[in-house]
Design a protein that fits this description.
The complex is a heterodimer. Chain A is mostly beta strands. Chain A has no helices and 11 strands. In chain A, strands 2, 4, 5, 9, 10 and 11 form a 6-stranded mixed sheet that branches. In chain A, strands 1-3-8-7-6 form a 5-stranded antiparallel sheet, with no helix packed on it. In chain B, the strands form 2 sheets. In chain B, strands 2, 4, 5, 6, 9, 10 and 11 form a 7-stranded mixed sheet that branches. The radius of gyration of chain B is 13 Å and the shape is globular. Classes of the chains: A mainly beta, B mainly beta. Chains A and B meet through β4, β5, β9 and β10 of A and β4, β5 and β9 of B.
Chain lengths: 112, 114
């Protein structure tokens, strides 16, 4: 079945770029998502990319999609302490059901 | 803004107690979900519902049941709580398949079973 994999932890210094990686197995995925979870809160959609795109940029965020390798990455430029959170990659389990399968979540630690 | 409200942020229950976790959404979404979040395991789907009185099992339904009597409300029930159900529970909703398929999450309910 569908699987989504992420590394568990990333530590960067304030001002550096952060790159969080994700691999998925289902090549039929239409949208792929990045969610952010701040301490003590639920998940909020950070950004998403449609499967016919290779890249999407939104201010400090850049999403890269390599469909051949089934690899998704999230780059945060000029990382700030407020970016410290857990980042989840997610993909649709099957089309048109609204169900998402989530990766394990990557904890981003930003050191001043 | 879409709002998904989970009635209890923190609960402490004893083994064997019946536990109700309530979730209400105010955007007339057809789909509602219950996920469980554990460190290193991400979010795992317990149950979801695509319509009133309709439900489907997710990946880890054992020990749980759900109820959806009204479109806006989706309840998760632990008939007899056990210590291995200590976890963060997240409710989410989404509209019928259109748009980006985004899920909207509540703040979470952290359950401790002693």
């Amino acid at each position: 079945g569908e699987d989504v994999e992420q590394s568990l932890f990333l530590s960067v210094r304030e001002g550096d770029s952060s790159v969080i990686n994700c691999t998925y197995t289902d090549s039929s995925s239409t949208y792929l998502y990045w969610y952010k979870q701040e301490p003590g809160a639920g998940l909020q959609l950070l950004t998403y990319i449609f499967s016919n795109m290779d890249m999407k940029q939104d201010q400090r965020l850049t999403v890269l999609l390599n469909k051949k390798d089934k690899h998704l990455s999230l780059r945060i430029a000029d990382t700030q302490t407020g970016d410290s959170a857990i980042y989840f990659c997610a993909a649709p389990r099957t089309s048109n059901t609204g169900k998402l399968i989530f990766g394990q979540g990557t904890t981003l630690q930003v050191k001043p | 803004d879409v709002k998904v409200t989970q009635s209890s942020r923190y609960l402490v229950k004893r083994t064997g107690e019946k536990v109700f976790l309530e979730c209400v959404q105010d955007m007339d979404h057809e789909n509602m979900f219950w996920y469980r979040q554990d460190p290193g395991l991400g979010l795992r789907l317990i149950y979801f519902s695509y319509d009133v009185k309709m439900k489907e099992k997710g990946d880890i339904p054992e020990g749980y049941s759900v109820s959806r009597e009204k479109k806006e409300r989706f309840s998760l029930i632990l008939e007899s709580a056990s210590t291995n159900q200590t976890s963060m529970y997240l409710c989410a909703s989404s509209p019928e398949s259109r748009g980006t398929g985004e899920l909207f999450f509540g703040e979470g309910s952290r359950l401790t079973v002693l």
